[in-house]
Design a protein that fits this description.
With 75 residues, the chain is an all-alpha fold. The chain is 93% helix and 0% strand. It contains two helices and no strands. 0% of the residues are buried. The mean pLDDT is 82.
């Protein structure tokens, strides 16, 4: 009887650990995707001559950096 209770508690604890690991992996993957998008946008900035497009892309980079910072804080 007591062994069953211990088993259930351990099982719940292990599930919580796995969920935390999965969440961390998702956050890391999302962070990597954000980095890739930022680098792609920076490459576009080099080839664009129009100032309106350039400003728009800079704003996108700023938004992505803020989002990345929020993810880092969530970790």
């Amino acid at each position: 009887m007591q062994l069953e209770k211990i088993y259930e508690k351990v099982k719940k604890y292990l599930l919580l650990i796995e969920e935390d690991d999965i969440e961390k992996k998702k956050i890391d993957k999302l962070s990597e995707n954000i980095e890739e998008k930022i680098s792609k946008i920076k490459n576009k900035l080099k080839s664009i001559d129009d100032t309106d497009d350039e400003n728009r892309l800079k704003e996108e980079i700023a938004i992505l950096k803020k989002f990345k910072k929020q993810l880092k804080e969530k970790k």
